[in-house]
Amino acid sequence: MLAVLVPVVPFILIIGVIWWYQNFSRVGRHINKLDGPGYPIVGVFLDYLSGDLEKVFQNDRDRCAKYSPIFKLWIFHKATVILQKPDDIEIILSSTKHIKKSQIYDNLHMWLGTGLLTSDGDKWKSRRKILTPAFHFAILKGFVDVFNEATESLVKDLTERAHEDYIDVVPPITQFTVQSMAETSMGTSLDLTQQINRNYKKAILDFTEIALYRLTKPWLYDENLFKLIPSGKQATKIVNTLHEFTRNIIHERKKSFKSSYTTQKRLAMLDLLLKAQETDGAIDDEGIREEVDTFMFEGHDTTAVAICHILMLLANHKNVQDEVRQEIFDIIGDNSQPPSYSDLQELAYTERCIKECLRLYPSVTLIGRDINEDVQTSTGYIIPKGTMAHIFIYDLHRNPDLYPDPLKFDPDRFLPENIQKRHPFAYIPFSAGSRNCIGQRFAMLELKALLCGILRKFNLEAVDRPEDIVFQADLVLRSKNPIRVKFITRN
Ligand code: HEM
Fold it and tell me: Is residue 7 part of a domain?
């Protein structure tokens, strides 16, 4: 009898404490004024057990459709409030008090430590201050050459494969963005004929896969626990490869830094960090490593999925494709002269297409914050301190009240007169407020440079239609299947 009671009593006690917390604690009393799915005690925990990523993605869509504009989710004692109303999103994102990222970001710590994306407080403030000049227009101007060279090599590869019935654009585009990021963030060209570079690129993809596995298993968020299981041990090995590579690059760069700093045309982000270290010791070696890793992570996958979706959309909307191409010819000409920084600034219609693509397919679908002190929403609910607030950008951008006929690809939604009619927090592909995307102008230039190279050389024909694309839960908006486009060489 005693043998049965020993494990059962603590179990019942834990259940009792969770039940009390969900119903009678201060957090519970406020949170339970909101509607939301789930069962007592476990909340929505069971939805994650299958590990079916497509289902996890779809569950989020269904919940948003049913409970928006504000609802609650419990997973045992952890409460999350989902905010989908632009007024409420503004309250959270424009506040300087709620800048700490929520728990879902923790599974990136193994690789990124607490770099710009994952840090908070004074550390985040000081890093943001050091890194902001890396996105000054004079530096972005220098990066246009990198984008043009990477585009040229991508176009060459695609030309060799243009006889194929279709190309799955995800692998070549991901290679393009990894290479562009390596050259701009580390000042190193990632020559993929070298084994060490291939290992690094593979390690990035392997880590992403494991982070994703962990993302849908909230019980593995604790790093110490995770490191004990086989996939955690594998992640440790992969992270060692990633860190060793970055540390070597930093070490090499340091050697040449002094002489290259004043004369170099393409000032890499790494140089800026080295300068901050040298002039006032504002960042140490591990700090530099964290930031280089953060930019490699945040800067390649986001742009890769955005490019894949825009190619798919243009292939499906020939009239828009023709108009973008015409604009490119009008501004840059139809020869092989690469675009300059100012040419890219002039591509107004192309920019509207990119914006509309990021509305329908925002690379980052979900952002989350820890609520550091009670917040009152626009409709009077209190989100209590100690909870998490999540915003599903994907669903916000497809809300028919904000975007009539939301599934229609219509770049004119971004004509200045139409933007003016919308709430400024109804469109947030790059988030908003102080923790917005530091790389948004970088991304826009990279996307435009690539479209110039591709549309001058190819006509794009649809293979997959928007309705064929099946998404799954991921760190970025990734489809389950390939994204296939036919490339037809233009004469
Ligand atoms: C289409 C491309 C991109 C999209 C849609 C995008 C989107 C976002 C979003 C939504 C956030 C906020 C994340 C959060 O609150 O959790 C963010 C943050 C960030 N992004 Fe981007 N991003 C893109 C490209 C880039 C690029 C190219 C870089 C680097 C060159 C970059 C670097 C960062 C960094 C470092 C942060 C953290 C900023 C901070 O917290 O201070 N992103 N991005």
Answer: no
Indicate if the alpha-carbon torsion angle 152, 484, 167, 315 is positive or negative.
negative
Full residue range of the structural domain in which residue 48 is found? 33-489
Numbered residues of the known binding site for heme: 437
pLDDT digits (tens, 9 = 90+) for 169-201: 999 999 899 889 988 888 888 777 777 888 888
Cβ of 296 closer than 6 Å to ligand 1, yes or no, is no
Distance CA 145, CA 209 (A): 31
Is position 103 within any domain? Answer: yes
CATH code of the domain containing 459: 1.10.630.10
The pair of structure tokens assigned to 374 is: 């009670």
pLDDT in tens, 193-224: 777 888 888 898 899 889 888 877 878 888 88
Q: Is residue 265 part of a domain?
A: yes
The string of DSSP letters for 36-87 reads: ---BTTTBTTHHHHT--HHHHHHHHHHHHHHHTTEEEEEETTEEEEEE-SHH
How many degrees, rounded to 5, is the angle at CA 159 between CA 488 and CA 453? Answer: 85
For 438-451, the pLDDT digits (tens) are 999 999 999 999 99
Give yes or no for residue 208 CB within 6 A of ligand 1.
no
Give the three-state DSSP class for 489.
Answer: strand
Please tell me the distance from the alpha carbon of residue 467 to that of residue 375, in angstroms, as a whole number: 39
pLDDT at 261: 57
Please name the residue ranges forming H helices in 161-284.
170-181, 195-215, 223-226, 230-263, 269-280
- Bridge-based pairing of strands 388-392 and 78-83 is parallel
How close is the Cα of 364 to the center of ligand 1, in Å? 8
Ligand 1 neighbour 147 (Cβ under 6 A): no
* Ligand 1 centroid, distance to 430 Cα (angstroms): 6
How big is the chain, counted in residues? 491
* ipTM confidence score: 0.99
Q: Residue 43 falls within a domain, yes or no?
A: yes
Number of domains in the chain: 1
